[in-house]
Amino acid sequence: MENEQVILALAALAQGTRLDVFRLLVAAEPQGLPAGEVARQLDVPHNTMSSHLGILSRAGLVRSERFSRSIIYRADLDALRAVVAFLLKDCCGGRAEICAPLMAELSPCCPPKVTTDA
User: Fold this and answer.
1) What does the pLDDT look like over 22-45, one tens digit per residue?
2) Where are the beta strands (DSSP E) in the chain?
3) Which 3 state secondary structure label does DSSP give 117?
4) How far apart are CA 22 and CA 114, in angstroms?
5) C-alpha to C-alpha distance for 88 and 99, rounded to whole angstroms
6) pLDDT per position as a tens digit, 71-84
7) Rounded CA gap, 29 and 23, in Å?
8) Max CA-CA distance within the chain?
9) Strand 62-67 to strand 70-75: parallel, antiparallel, or no bridges (unpaired)?
């Protein structure tokens, strides 16, 4: 990921409504939400929501897919991962003990699946 892509993504998220939209779409993964439902849940006018969704889409953080008359929006978790990885790539000069609290903070939301071999 390049600096400009990260700057565009962070700029898109640097506005309250768009940050709320993105967090709502992350919570709605993997099914996503129709644009109208996003607007309803956040109590934002549809035309304003359309603008916010467009900015997030151009920043590469949101994907959309048309189903009949609805457009379903989904958070692009790969893009989010790339932005976070870019920010943390050289975390603390390679000193894992300094980055450990940050990594621990990120881990509880998505614990790894444990597989058992029977």
Assistant:
1) 999 999 999 999 999 999 999 999
2) 33-34, 62-67, 70-75
3) coil
4) 29
5) 9
6) 999 999 999 999 98
7) 10
8) 54
9) antiparallel
